[in-house]
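ARCHIVE RECORD
Type: protein–small molecule complex
Small molecule: adenosine-5'-triphosphate
Source of inputs: curated submission
Record status: active
Notes field left blank by submitter.
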Amino acid sequence: MQLPVAKPQVVLAYARVLMRQHRRPLARMLSLYALAAVMALIPAWAIGQITDFASNHQLTSSKITLYVGALFVSSLAYAVLTFFARRRSYVLGETVFAQLREEFLESVLALPLIEVERAGTGDLLSRTTNDMESLSRTVRFAVPEWLVAILQAVLTLVAMLLVSPLATVASLVSLPFLFFSTRHYLRYATPGYRRERISYATMSGSVAETAEGARTIDAHQLGARQSTRIEDSVRESFYSEMYTLLLRMVWFPTVEGAFAIAVAATLAWSGWLVINGHLALGAATTVTLYVVQINDPLDRIVSWLDELQIGQTALARLVGVSVVKDDRPRSGPAPSNETITMQDVRYAYREGHDVLNGITLTVKPGERLAIVGPSGAGKSTIGRLLAGIDAPRSGSVRVGEVELAQMPLTTLRQHVALVTQEHHIFIGSVHDNVALAHPEASEREIEEALDAVDALEWVQHLPQGLETELGTTGYQITPAQAQQLALARLVLSNPHTLVLDEATALLDPRAARHLERSLSAVLHGRTVIAIAHRLHTAHDADRVCVVIDGVVAELGTHEELVALNGDYAALWSSWRNEKPTAS
Ligand code: ATP
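STRUCTURE (tokenized, with ligand):
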């Protein structure tokens, strides 16, 4: 499943708003180009005048000086005006592109997580890279060049009509060729380019997936399968590129041919008019030169159409991200208390396959609840629903009386936050990485957060302590240390309820238990819901919830459940036998 692509009307409306926002600089840039275009019309007119004087035997050296001077000055003025116009156009292009990039980033950050998960990261990655790059070319070059070319073509046509409407008629023979070939091209090019873009997304998705899952692929000997998948996506890209190339191979020569026909027709027609005394030789010369001259902007109009198509497709994909419906309201009531309630919750990743089959659970403020159960029982799914990442298919998950899925994201995060085994270290210092959760936090608060997760000591021993640069280009910390930083972030963001999904799994059992104890001292009064494989977490918790096949099988304190002699008691005794020293 892909993220949506915006409809043409939406893209057009977006482009219109963008143009309106930059109306003034755009008008100034086009005025400069218009002046330059007028300057570019003077040489052909001057040559026409000289031709007229020569054919009437009235050519004097002062006239030659005058017209050649005009030719020289206009060419110089053209060069200077174009320089300034181009400069304005680049500045405008960069400004608009920067705005587009910022808006896109905002929409990406506002995407509901579940949508990104459904679409896969390949699609989003391809939009942020390939589509952004295509759009950059379109905004920086194609759009200004295209507008300028239209302006130049129109002004040249007006000049031709002013010199001789009669002679101009012949140049119009090229229009049907241009019109029909371009219409044909555009009709097939839009879906063609869209297919091309989708194929790039699939290709980068398969390559990224193969690289990320290299170990799994190796372990299960899936190399051949992945190769076939990548080959298929490369083949699809190849054929979709061949298709658009074929379209261009037909279209470009037709356009070139149309231009040649226009020049030949004008020459023949205006020659006939001159011979029969209907037109002055100078006017015929000027019009023919204008036809040669107009071919350049016309050529640019049609050849940039190609780039504009690509840009339009890219823009549709980028704007598409912003049309993903925000599944949350922007504002809403704050819950009056911090009790977490799951009421008859059912949830399915795939339609018709419920993985939670009616979970009912109440967690009181300040309680420490451990969720245990066999693999695949639905524990992580419960964690995701408790963190409000997705809404249940039926039933309700609430903080106080407010449905989690109906809370604005910022409010939600003040109440509930989730830490899983997945964690990310951003490029930046240890300080920056922890302070992400609370940018205004003082150094002392950050140190306290690190201390709460047993990380302060090793952080202080890093080469530059808190200021040590981390991330791909910086100091490499271990996955267990990264997990501690993720927990420190959580401590600093200070939500009322913390959902920990195997958040200490990467630490060795002794360190994990120590961390959990120091964490619970800091989090006194906070609700902690810990999904755990290691049963010492359950042993230390206030209550234990055993989940089997998507339902709550047992619920009670550690002692009660051991006394019950059911599933938990069995899990506990086998765990103790496996790890006699860990409890
Ligand atoms: P574990 O202890 O192995 O992490 P768990 O108890 O946390 O297991 P869940 O991860 O919640 O179990 O998974 C519950 C069921 O949902 C499993 O059958 C799993 O295969 C399925 N499932 C989990 N994530 C997805 C997903 N993204 N798409 C489809 N099915 C999924």
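CURATOR ANNOTATION: The longest strand covers residues 340-350.
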